[in-house]
Design a protein that fits this description.
Strand content: under 5%
Radius of gyration: 14 Å
Distance between the termini: 36 Å
Structural class: mainly alpha
Number of strands: 0
Number of domains: 1
Helix content: over 70%
Number of helices: 3
Shape: elongated
Length: about 60
């Protein structure tokens, strides 16, 4: 799952059906794969927004 989340974060366009199959082999069903994808994507989005606005940086 963590490898999938890293790949999603760094190179989402490189996600392939084999990546989903790897998760299934570790017991993840389609709903769990969707949840992992949504959560990782949401955190990526929020972090980019925060970075763009300078949130958490000393001014």
């Amino acid at each position: 799952m963590l490898d999938f989340a890293v790949k999603l974060t760094e190179n989402a366009y490189k996600i392939q059906p084999q990546d989903h199959e790897g998760l299934r082999q570790h017991g993840f069903d389609d709903q769990a794969i969707l949840q992992v994808t949504l959560i990782a994507s949401w955190f990526n989005y929020i972090n980019r927004v925060a970075d763009a606005l300078g949130v958490g940086r000393e001014q």
